[in-house]
Design goal:
single chain, about 325 residues, alpha/beta, eight-stranded mixed β-sheet, 14 helices, 8 strands, about 15% strand
Length: about 325
């Protein structure tokens, strides 16, 4: 009798799981090959770095510029910038470990030190001697740490709402969820599209720019095999933790630096940009009105004009 009860409950469990999946409450992992078919293109390349198959794109010619995306994003966040910058520069962008098509690291070490070391290994494989580097949010944190560690490599530094200094804002709900034991376990299976949409509406100042196509891309990248667990691993270790070493590093950067901040950034407020500008000796802060946390994605024309001026590129590129 007990045996039949166990079988019955197992059947109920399977049926309940199927109902959740078909009702789009539970989302299964997406295979890497499926993501490649949809989000890789003729410029996509893959290179092994520290036992990780890294997805990157290398376009255009001229002096190189390296673009580094932020948390929960991918190299696609730089599409608009790349379309213009590749007219004058060689543009290199990548999916960082834990994100995009690249996916998780085996050792689950997502500290800034590990990311900086990884980036150096990646750029060494491409045999880049000197280049500009730009980063948004987490990518900005990695970029300025790289400039501090390898100053001879970086010609100019561009920080777009870069992290690395404490904020007076509470952590976004998705980070709190990933840190909470029971909720983080649910996050591995229940990752509704509406949650991704909510986050995008937080990082964009203009909600009308948050299209279904944009939400779908971010959502599918989050569902890449291993990415949800990697997000939890990163959140538990709190990679945003700031020490006095961060301040000392920022003060040590002599590279010409452009800081771009959206005036309506809810994740890393403009006050952080002002403090970072005060710490970096050779820096300039430019604010974009009516922009949120990802100006290069939300306001590509405005941000590109600022970037081209800083890099000395022809002004006619962005009308």
């Amino acid at each position: 009798m007990k045996k039949y009860k166990k079988i019955k409950y197992a059947i109920y469990g399977v049926l309940f799981f199927v109902i959740l999946v078909t009702s789009r409450i539970i989302y299964l992992d997406i295979a890497v090959e499926d993501l490649k078919k949809e989000y890789a293109n003729e410029y996509s390349k893959f290179i092994e770095v520290n036992q990780i198959q890294v997805h990157f794109r290398d376009e255009g010619s001229g002096f190189p510029i390296v673009l580094i995306h932020g948390t929960a994003s991918s190299l696609h966040t730089w599409d608009a910038w790349t379309n213009e910058l590749k007219k004058t520069n060689r543009v290199i962008r990548l999916d960082l470990p834990a994100f995009g098509i690249t996916g998780p690291k085996q050792d689950a070490d997502y500290s800034i030190e590990a990311y900086t070391s990884f980036l150096h290994s990646f750029l060494e494989k491409l045999k880049l001697e000197k280049f500009h580097i730009a980063g948004n949010s987490l990518g900005g944190n990695i970029a300025w740490n790289y400039a501090a560690e390898y100053p001879a490599k970086v010609e100019k530094l561009i920080l777009v709402a870069a992290s690395g200094l404490p904020t007076n804002k509470p952590q976004p709900a998705i980070f709190k969820m990933a840190k909470t034991p029971i909720l983080s376990s649910l996050f591995l299976y229940i990752t509704p599209k509406i949650l991704i949409q909510k986050n995008l509406k937080e990082v964009y100042a203009d909600d009308t720019k948050v299209t279904d196509q944009l939400v779908t891309r971010y959502h599918k990248m989050a569902l890449r095999v291993g990415n949800r667990q990697a997000f939890i691993d990163r959140s538990k270790k709190d990679v945003r933790m700031v020490t006095t070493m961060n301040i000392d590093k920022l003060k040590s950067i002599q590279t010409p630096t452009l800081l771009i901040w959206g005036s309506h950034d809810l994740w890393i407020p403009l006050d952080n940009g002002k403090r970072m500008d005060a710490l970096i000796p050779n820096s300039e802060l430019v604010t974009i009105p009516n922009s949120g946390h990802v100006p290069m994605e939300e306001n590509p024309k405005e941000s590109l004009k600022i970037v081209n001026s800083f890099l000395g590129n022809p002004a006619f590129l962005v009308k």
